[in-house]
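Entry type: protein chain
Record version: 2
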Amino acid sequence: MAEVVNRPDTAVNLPEMASEDSLALTTTKNTTEVTAPAEKKVKKIIRRKKRPARAQVDPATVKSEPPAQTGTTFNIWYNKWAGGDKEDSAMSQTHAKGRCNIALDSGYTKADGHPGAFFCLYFARGVCHKGQDCDYLHRLPGPYDIFPQNVDCFGRDKFSDYRDDMGGVGSFSRQNRTIYVGRIHVSDDIEEIVARHFAEWGPIERIRVLSNRGIAFVTYRDLANAEFAKEAMAWQSLEGNEILNLRWSLPDPNPMAQKREARRIEEQAAEAIRKALPAEFVAEIEGKDPEARKRRKIESGYGLEGYEAPDEVHFARGPNAVNPRGREGFELEHEQRLMLEAAEQEMMQEQQYDKPPPQQQQQGGIFSSSTLAALQGAQVAVASKPAPKTSTGPLVAYDSDSD
């Protein structure tokens, strides 16, 4: 340790090997105090591990039974009945065996390490017995869970058209985010009840309840949440003992709803374009960057005071673009095109020079040699005059030389 010498009115110099963090000195007229270094506060980051998904039912109670007959032909590949276009009426009157509880049942499974994995259908129905050993996801779909258009979030194949009863997996021809909910027991606060039960499965865009008919239409923001909610709430109950009847909704004939859907599709396309383009370029186009706006006003004037070129002129691209940036990459192509056109013109001129001159007309005639040759080669058939018929009668030799 370094020695400290007390001298009046004298500064203390420590050896170089003593660091500033190890000792702190306070010099006075007669004494020099050595204080302990201040303790540094270290922030500890505690990362909580994701909990494993729990089994929703006891595996011992699961029995592998063949599915109930709901069609005319049994498909051994998909292990289900086919041919029936409508759902079994007895099954639609039976309450579901379980219900998914997102707060308790969700967790990590084997599928979390595989990007693009599908969600567990039995987890959505509340009857999965595998828990963390399941090969599918046990959680709610998020905004970044995007699947191909021909399959749903559970990996089932969609069809070109909906079933007659609007049940089943659905169709890939239309992005349907609205669910039809039937057999609702109407009460004074039915809208609040429907919103509370269906909001468990994802963000909702709007809800419409027809109290006089006992039905509701629930529209989710994302398609995957609508597919998940349709399976999670099938044959469930709200507050009473009703058994809900869930189907895919038909297209809304309201013109306002159609315009709203078209506007939503345009916004999705615009958002995809924004993500693909650089942020500064998007800010310049949308006019959100003031500096870019001033620079655009100066550049689009092209030396003319008070003139600002419109967007279709300023951002145009091609060899004839006014903006020099728009001509980048097209100058070489334009030069090559000009060279090709010049070569074609030279070839045409050479062909004209090499072409033999037309034959001159014969002197003293009005027809050219080509016309005379065509006339000579033509075969003209001249009809001969028919011979007069010899008449028979008493005046046969009248006007003859023998008389």
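Comment: The domain at 72-258 is CATH 3.30.70.330 (Alpha-Beta Plaits).
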